[in-house]
Amino acid sequence: MTMNAVLLTGHGGFERLEYRSDVRTPVPGPDEVLVRVGAAGVNNTDINMRAAWYSKTADGAPAAPVEDAGWTGDAVAFPLIQGADVCGRVVAAGSDVAADYIGRRVLVDPVLRSRPTASGTKTLYLGSDCDGGFADYVCVPAVNAYAVGNALTDSELASFPCSYSAAENMLTRAAVREGETVLVTGASGGVGSAAVQLAKRRGARVIALAGESKAADVAQLGASRVLPRNADLVAAMGEESVDVVIDVVGGRQFPSLLNILRRGSRYAVAGAIAGPIVTLDLRTLYLKDLRLIGCTIPELEVFANLVRYIESGEIRPVLAGTYSMRDIAAAQGDFLAKRHTGKIVLVP
Predict the structure, then answer these.
(1) Domain range spanning residue 237?
(2) How far apart are CA 328 and CA 286, in angstroms?
(3) In terms of domains, do 141 and 179 share one?
(4) Which of 104, 113, 179, 247 is most buried, by the most CB atoms less than 10 A from its CB?
(5) Is residue 311 included in any domain, yes or no?
């Protein structure tokens, strides 16, 4: 049995994305379910891996071979079906999975913990270390398939997993509390717009950085104040005016982010879209007793909490647009143009 899928055939440009109709449909292992994909979101990770951005030896250039261009620092195994954000319906299950999984509409946690590999047990990421959701079907561990029942569409639900779990994980690790002031960078993007909502949900006062054309959208998500993305933060806010920084941008503005943090405060990061190399004055770090927190693998409770927030209506999807999966190059092009607020989603 075959299916439609987008194959990433190597590092490079859009020409490395190949839409095929003769890809073998996966078969679930004993502890897995087969999900018919209803929608799958586009993420920075998809583009970063295609472009070899994660590579340090190649300095982010799409050279071949690139031995450290996976998000874990390993080589990428091509061809690869990307796509970590998946909403769909379970249509088959492995021998060790309860039969009542079949027929469930599910949202997939993309972090596959304790999965067997050739070199031992590892935590894998859907669509990066194994085939993901840019296809008609995908196999995932049953424990990663969370039943979700509400009126949201598959496309709306597919906007949640990666961005919202990354944002909630940063807020969790930074222990954001009611009444604190939180600065969110890149607030019109997938993770940033999620962080605005999720920080507001915790009762924090949210200050957001976003392009001026998107300021109204970000304010509607719960930001009390929206500043231009390249604002002089110390001039606009004052030194030591923020309790937590939630950053997905990095780049030249990094020193200012530490300057506006109060003493004993926290900085959490899960992205570097403005550049991964930053200037750090160690005196700022240690004299202010700051905590810098890198965030990739979410805490165990994060995804279950996220599903609970969705089902209770505490957070809402921010869907920028949907594209046919065969139009993935156009979708990624628009994603890179950064004219949108929220998430771009592919539909088989």
Answers:
(1) 163-294
(2) 45
(3) no
(4) 247
(5) no
The pTM score is 0.92
**Averaged pLDDT for residues 96-100:** 96
pLDDT of residue 60: 45
Closest CA to 80 of 130, 32, 153: 130
| Residue reference for tokens 């143009």 | 337
Same domain for 59 and 142: yes
140 and 193 belong to one structural domain: no
Q: Return the structure tokens found at 53.
A: 């951005």
Q: Say if residue 167 is in the same domain as residue 155.
A: no
Whether 180 and 274 map to the same domain: the answer is: yes
**Mode of pairing for the β-strands spanning 85-93 and 105-108:** antiparallel
CB-neighbour burial class of residue 285 (10 A; exposed 0-12, middle 13-18, buried 19+): middle
